[in-house]
Design goal:
Helix content: 25-40%
Low-confidence stretches: none
Distance between the termini: 15 Å
Largest sheet: 8 strands, parallel
Number of strands: 8
Strand content: 15-25%
Bound molecules: D-xylitol-5-phosphate, zinc ion
Number of helices: 8
Shape: globular
Oligomer: single chain
Length: 217
């Protein structure tokens, strides 16, 4: 289904003392993927998970694993996340100078490659790589923490990417991450996003499936 909106709950907002149950909750919600935020304490001012947790999530479920690397030198860690079971690996354009090599290596490993952009990063930097990747991720908060407020200037970037996607007939996912709830999801979809990441909103609900359905509407 070409125009289907994909939704990925961000495991960062889960209760880690019951990780397996939280993964099962995502599975039952019929979300398209689990979004896993990897932070190194340098590229962003927070530390989260590594390949071992990705591997544990992979053993808990068959669900598609969307791994979002917020780390410097992503190239050096690709093989570890591939081994852990990542299906999509997204890294930040601001985090490395080896952008092409990193994309090529992810693809050589048979995985989908995504390129992420911080809120203040210009979309023009994407032009060179947009045909090489499977996904562009526009951060709608400053990366590092869940529960922040959506930054509306991201909508302009989404729109530029959507235009390029249509003009060039690209098979490209346009993902948005940060501050996504019912209202912000509507705005993102209106501007051309087809892949929404949400942590706080989805994990705060008793019935995650209704939340996922709401974001798809
Ligand atoms: C932030 C992370 C996000 C975060 C989103 O750096 O990349 O994936 O978990 O959380 P919410 O939906 O709470 O903004
Ligand atoms: Zn993320």
């Amino acid at each position: 289904m070409k125009n289907k909106i994909k939704v990925a709950p961000s495991i960062l907002s889960a209760d880690f003392s019951h990780l397996h149950d939280e993964v099962k909750r995502v599975e039952k919600s019929k979300a398209d993927a689990i979004h896993i935020d990897i932070m190194d304490g340098h590229f962003v001012p927070n530390l989260t998970m590594g390949p071992k947790i990705v591997s544990a999530i992979n053993r808990s479920s068959e669900i598609f694993l969307d791994v979002h690397l917020m780390i410097y030198n992503p190239f050096d860690y690709i093989d570890k996340f591939v081994e852990a079971g990542a299906d999509l690996i997204t890294f930040h354009i601001e985090a490395t100078e080896d952008i092409e090599d990193t994309i090529n290596f992810i693809k050589k490993c048979g995985k989908k490659a995504g390129l992420a952009f911080n809120p203040e990063t210009s979309f023009s930097l994407a032009l060179k790589y947009i045909e090489m990747v499977d996904l562009v991720l526009f951060m709608s908060v400053h990366p590092g923490f869940g529960g922040q407020k959506f930054i509306p200037s991201v909508l302009e970037k989404i729109e530029m990417a959507k235009k390029l996607k249509d003009d060039m007939k690209l098979d490209l996912d346009i993902q948005v991450d940060g501050g996504i709830g019912k209202e912000t999801a509507l705005k993102c979809k209106k501007h051309g996003a087809n892949f929404l990441v949400a942590g706080t909103y989805l994990f705060s609900l008793d019935d995650m499936k209704t939340g996922v359905d709401n974001l798809r509407l």
